[in-house]
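On clarity, I found the account of how folds are encoded harder to follow than it need be. For illustration, here is how one protein appears when written out as sequence plus C-alpha cells:

:::
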Amino acid sequence: MSIKEKYSEEREVLLAEQQQHEIILYNDDVNTFDHVINTLIRACEHTEEQAHQCSLLVHYKGKCGVKTGDYDDLKPRCSMLLDAGLSAEIV
C-alpha cells in the first residue's frame, strides 16, 4: 500500500467519524429512574442494563451520551426523549 492510499483511507475514516452526532441526556430533579430507563429502552433501543447504567451516570455525573449516530437517525430519538419530559440535546 502506498503512502497516498494510506492517507486516503485515514482521511475517509476521519471524515466518517466527524459526521457522527451524539444525544446527551441531562440530569433533572423531576423524572424517576424507572421513567428514564423505560424511555431510553423505547427511544434509544437500549437494553434494560444499558438504560440502567445510563440513568446512573446521568444521576451522578449530570449528563451522559446515550446514543451515537447520524443526525437524521438521532433527531426523532431525541424528540422522543424530549416529549417524555427528559432533558436532552444532539451534539
Q: What stands out?
A: Strands lie at 21-26, 63-69, 87-90.
